[in-house]
Amino acid sequence: MQRGTAKKGKLTVSGYLAATNIGIIIAAVIISMSTILDKPSPFSAPFVATLTGIHSVSAFVGSVAGFFIMGDYGNAVIICSSLLSVMAVRLMLKNESGRAESVIMSMTSAASVFTANAITSSGVSELMGCLALGILAGGATPVFMHLKKLNKAKELTEVTIKNNPIGLLSVMTGGVITISILSAYAVNVFNIGIISAVALSCFVAVRYGSGAGAIAGSVTAIGSFLGAGAYPHLAAVLSVASAITGLVRDGRKINAVSVYILTSVLCTVLFVMDNSNIGLTANVFMGCAVFMVIPEKHLVNEKAIRHRTYSDNNIKELFGHRLLFAKNAISEVRRTIDLTAEKLEEDSKRDISFVYNTACDEICRKCRYNMQCWGNEYSDSIKQFSSLLKKLRNAQPIDEGMFTAPLDDRCTKKKELCEEMTKLYRSYVSSLSGRRRVAQMRSVLTVQLSATEKLLSTLAEETREDGDIKSEYNRIAKGTLRGLGCDDTRAVNVTLGENGRMYLEAYSDKAFGTSRQDMAGAMTLAFHKNFDLPVVARVGDSYKLSMFTKTTYYLDVEIYQISKNENAPCGDYYDSFIDNKGNAYIVLSDGMGSGARARIDSAFVCDMLIKLLSAGTGEESAIEIVNASVMLKSSDESFATLELCKVDLYSGRVTVYKAGSADTYVKCGKEYSHLPSGGLPVGAEDVPSYKKYEFTLSSKDMIIMTSDGAELNREWLYREMAKPDTVLKELAKNVAQTAKFHSGNKSNDDISVIAMRLCR
Predict the structure, then answer these.
(1) What is the pLDDT of residues 563-609, one digit of tens each?
(2) Range of 502's domain?
(3) Contact assessment for residue 581 and residue 503, using Cβ atoms and an 8 Å cutoff
(4) Same domain, 132 and 166
(5) Distance CA 653, CA 76 (A)
(6) Are 134 and 239 contained in the same domain?
């Protein structure tokens, strides 16, 4: 006989049993207070039937308490009597989970639920409902018993279609039942079941990936619909949101939540255009808030990582193919959205003549003069109602005094016609507004999906073509970082590229606690290759360390800016960074107008573009995403020019993207060239319009980027760039001030000049 006592706050055997029984009672109360088909929940019987011994008694006590709390004492006595028989049979059976016991308990649960509901039912339809409840109870019993078995073996979260298909089916069915029970509880617009469905599907997508997330979204949405009977489109919304979240998961909760919310809200707006959007969106936000509470350590599937059987490079190839497959799937979704939206637009199109045609059909059909007005005098009638409709379109009220002969002399329902036309015209205008909103959301969603499609394609290409991963190098790099005191590093990857280039990236939840010089020196000794100083980037609470072997060149950059007004901020914005492949990126943006408003637009464009590029997004995909984001960020007209200059510091290869930006000037050896403005500012059109230039520079070659405010004499600028003793900082300042001087008081914009020199 065991006896437990509490010491130093630790839970003993007796304390554990007490806590378990209290939890079972609470769960039983929650189950018994829910309803299915307007009848008490049939899942109380399977819950009692699944548990054994004192736990079964606790489940019975909790169920009885729940039924009596509901207040229907007559039905409660009958149902509790049937539950008593289930508990009695359960206590008589010795084996917990034998096949025969499972069949017996399933039949007992089904019979007890059917009998308890059939006693108070009348009519064939109600008896059929009782039969359905009995089948649900009978089917849920073996599911509950199998879930209990999996939980006892600690395999509940590890079942897959390959290693345990029956277990996976049980988990999915259990999810449907659990969500359906929780969906019976709601506070205002917040439904506990829908919130749980969102949190669970988001969790599964992040932990197990896109496929599992889509299944979890569909399963939980079905359970929510069974319990709440609301949002029939919820399965489509949650499955698409979970699938896309699983595609872009990176173990960071905030990123997963952002993708989940964006996708689910867009899908909700696409499926439903009424006030139910508000309730569903509120539940999605609340579910994502619940997901954010889950500790991040639970989002990583450690067992899957430990049992990985493929080599690093096989996984890289597989991941590349998965990205391409996901890109094709999103492409199909985008085409389906286009076709569906076109069909909806065709179905909703109606001419404005609908207003008077419908009004006259409604009011005039029983009038004795109907055939005369709409037969013999059809042309006069049409002119009369067209005149009234014209006044409505000019926002003028109409009344019976506006009718003219011959209608004015004989029509007795002029007032009713005016009122009906006014009402229908308002409905028509509202319909037009709705169609415009649908068209706008379709455009936005299509652009976003197109950008995501291109993003996945770029990532797939880069993943497959990126150099070889060396497992031994990964171990050396991780050991070197640990020796420097960076013990919190979660992942380290070393890639060997062309011409012996080596790229190293590492991720950590804490800042790398050592100097950049020490890290470069340690890696140089470990790999016998010269490393440049690392780049450390931070996003939220995550840190990324990027290092690469010394490049052939480095880029010397200077910028000089002059505001239009002395006391106002400059509306131009500049940023730069070097990625882990030795590419230097310089971005210059000029917001519409000048001052603070222009500064906000240009800073938004630069910051977002830099974040996308640093995350590994290709340049063209990043520009498309930024363009769509600028269009969405404000209801007011908002756009900004963009110039992106990418310099490969190993080869000197330069790529320049210009979207509405000002002229750029290049010195290559003794040759000079001019890159004119091209394309349109980002945010000006649904699809970004830009011009792309490619060329190669060598040591001492120069590039000068300018904003719209700088109008320069090209020959003078080339002479300045040709001077052998040119100091880059002075050159940028001299060019900006010269442009300001020549513009005089005519300058209506800020001036920015970026001078760059490639040095060996």
Answers:
(1) 777 666 777 888 888 876 778 899 998 877 666 677 788 888 888 88
(2) 468-548
(3) yes
(4) no
(5) 80
(6) no
